[in-house]
Amino acid sequence: MAAILQIKPITDVPADRRASANPRDPEFFQNPYAFYDRLHATDPAFFWDEYGHWCFAGFKDVSALLRDKRFGRDILHVATREEIGLPAPQPHTAAFDLTEKYSLLNLEPPAHTRLRMLVNRAFVSRHVEQLRPRIRTLANEIIDGFEGEGSVDLIKAFAAPIPAIVIAEMIGLPAEMAPQLLNWSNRMVQMYMFGVTREVELDANQASADFMDYLRTVIAERRRQPREDLLTHMLTAEPGGDRLSDDEVMSTAILLLNAGHEATVHTTGNGVKSILESGIDPATLFASEEQTQATAEECLRFDAPLHMFTRYALTDLEYEGIRLRKGDVIGLMLGAANRDPKRFADANRFDPFRTDGANVSFGAGIHFCIGAPLARIELQVAFAELFRRLPRLRIAEPPRYGDVYHFHGLEKLVVEWR
Ligand code: HEM
């Protein structure tokens, strides 16, 4: 998930293909959909001035480009740093860089294929489906803890702990560690923001170093005493006879912990907000298993938690008349694609009864979210249990999104139910 920046400036773009929106402007990140509406009405393939690279907001383009093998999340397997003008690695972010080095999200085939095959088995639907009862119990225990209060910040009290505890337990780390894991993870993901400062880099690096120290101790314990958990599985699995190194296991565990909760927290918050603001009777949204699934899918489509992912052009190429050089960056706008009126009828309406719901919130192609089956179960259970237990739930304060365009999630969601 490293922050990818366009290195060599692109200058030859006609004025009518350019668009401007400041990702740090509160008016923009509180409601990026007004900008997306303008793009869909004019040109959804445009050069975003502030980012300095081409971006794609149309569903068809985003979906096709995520699958297009001429683009990759990494470039250093086909080019040197000098060739594309990437700066040398910085000593003060060495620990952070090490956590990223073997991250699935930064690899391309064949390295990506090998690592993904190994981890994938743990995340297939039939395997994670077994976690549903545990997730239901957890959601209810958490609600038991705050039900008497009558009002709560739902992000902190409910949305955040569920995915953090689930992924920690799955990897084989104690649930009590969840707050510490959240702390490390939150500090590390600051690195993916627009305009990172040196202070943020130093703090993210410290969090990475502490996270790795902790994991090294747990890995040593598992080597002495194997358990039935994902960490042990990763340490002992031998795909085609080769083993994962400790650094590979650490990178993967950190990626799973980071990717495994952040987006799910935001989707839970955004989804509860969408449901409450729609005015639809929640009882109808969770009346059956199928409707619960459809409601969760519409929450994912309508207010996606991750709005832009980038890719490098791996060669000089042309896409729909746009010429790209090897190393150029493109932005794929998932949140905008999900609101494309060419793909979805009445795209700006929250409609959990729609049948044209398949969205790109989990991406597509080789990097398609490995945790999607797990995230879907977490969301279905969290929404259904919350509205079953607190049917009078309503918003108590106007919710505000955090100052981060890429991660589109609420800072707070204060609700009440008496
Ligand atoms: C609502 C929740 C989630 C959303 C919206 C989401 C979204 C995404 C997206 C869009 C990608 C692809 C990024 C790209 O193509 O550049 C991705 C990849 C990934 N996600 Fe998720 N994710 C969620 C939950 C999870 C969970 C629960 C886990 C793990 C337990 C997870 C683990 C991963 C991993 C490991 C990758 C990298 C896969 C690869 O590169 O092969 N995600 N996710």
From TrEMBL:
Keywords (A to Z) from UniProt: Heme, Iron, Metal-binding, Monooxygenase, Oxidoreductase
Short name of any one Pfam family annotated for the protein: p450
Cofactor: heme
Keyword Iron: yes
Domain of life: Bacteria
Key word Ribosomal protein present: no
Protein family: Belongs to the cytochrome P450 family.
PANTHER family noted in UniProt: CYTOCHROME P450 YJIB-RELATED, P450, PUTATIVE (EUROFUNG)-RELATED
Stated name of the protein: Cytochrome P450
